[in-house]
């Protein structure tokens, strides 16, 4: 019971009865230039026309973007690690093929 009384006293001591006048320029300064336009661009629906960067995307690309956008941070990091491992394996395979090409003398330049 004593803990509940102390908790209630703590809660009442944390209450603030201060009234904020929202018209005050000191408390609510003007927005930074460009912020209002940036915020307004996200409020409008994208029904009018797709952005320039989406014009060259195919349906497969858009589906991949949606899939990546739905991943959690952990899943996205796993996906990136998988791509890094795949790139590393591709580099190893390319190195082996280049070495093989050198041994077979198929990469020599033709002398004129």
TrEMBL record:
One of its GO terms (cellular component) is DRM complex. GO terms for biological process: regulation of DNA-templated transcription. Pfam families: LIN52. Belongs to the lin-52 family. This is Protein lin-52 homolog.
């Amino acid at each position: 019971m004593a803990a509940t009384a102390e908790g209630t006293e703590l809660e009442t001591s944390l209450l603030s009865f201060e009234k904020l006048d929202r018209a005050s320029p000191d408390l609510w300064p003007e927005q930074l230039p460009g912020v209002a336009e940036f915020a307004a661009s996200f409020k409008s629906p994208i029904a009018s026309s797709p952005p320039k960067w989406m014009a060259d995307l195919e349906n497969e690309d858009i589906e991949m973007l949606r899939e990546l956008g739905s991943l959690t941070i952990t899943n996205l990091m796993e996906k990136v690690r998988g791509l890094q491992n795949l790139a590393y394996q591709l580099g190893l395979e390319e190195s082996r093929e280049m070495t093989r090409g050198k041994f077979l003398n198929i990469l020599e330049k033709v002398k004129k």
